[in-house]
Amino acid sequence: MGGVAICCYEPVPLMVMQLESRSHEEQALAAKGLADMARDCATQRQRIADEGAVLVLPSLLQSSDPEVVEQGARLVANLACGHINNSSRLAEAGVIPLLVNLIGTVPDSCCYHVARALANLACNSAGNTARMEVADAIPQLVKLLRSEDVHVREEAAAAISNMVSRRTSCQPQLVKAGGIPLLVELALSGEATPEKKVFDRILSCLVGCSPEIAMLIREAGWEGRPATAAK
Description:
Layout: H1 2-8, H2 11-18, H3 24-39, H4 42-50, H5 53-61, H6 66-80, H7 84-93, H8 95-102, H9 108-124, H10 126-134, H11 137-144, H12 150-166, H13 170-176, H14 179-188, H15 194-207, H16 211-219
Helix pairs in contact: 2-3, 3-4, 3-6, 5-6, 5-7, 6-9, 8-9, 9-10, 9-12, 11-12, 12-15, 14-15
């Protein structure tokens, strides 16, 4: 039993130190372990951030090693999940432009974590959304709506929705990038699936952003769904 307690808490400072290792393998393993710890525990998210992980993450996102980058993006996503303080600290550390710049340069497995990180960061803070707008996140996220990976599409759509619903100046960017027809196409394509429900919910949210956005969505062919779509 004692081993479980040690696993839960004692390794955190050491693992944060290993994020700065000269070994890419050690960096990736430490980031993965910390991300696992942060996944389901808000206390661990705070502890990991307090130990200094936030300040190291920008260097991981710029690593020459793909696994280090992917696990770094995953750690950002998990630290930001439902945690306003961590989200602000991550943004101040400069991770947002680094995440945006990764889109189009990394595989879908990494893009999933990048998009989820941006969705979580935008969800928690209007200030973060402003930083994402400056970093031209919307056009990059729209590119991910064309991904062959359904989970990448879902997280990209969630990030777009969080940005547009919190910052009206993002709405013209979404229109210019061609995001609305893509979102409608994803919502209308094929039979009813969990993915379709995700896009229905996102479009329902976007319809409420402004009359202009609502009109464009309906012109693209989405007429809305019953109240169950918003659940």
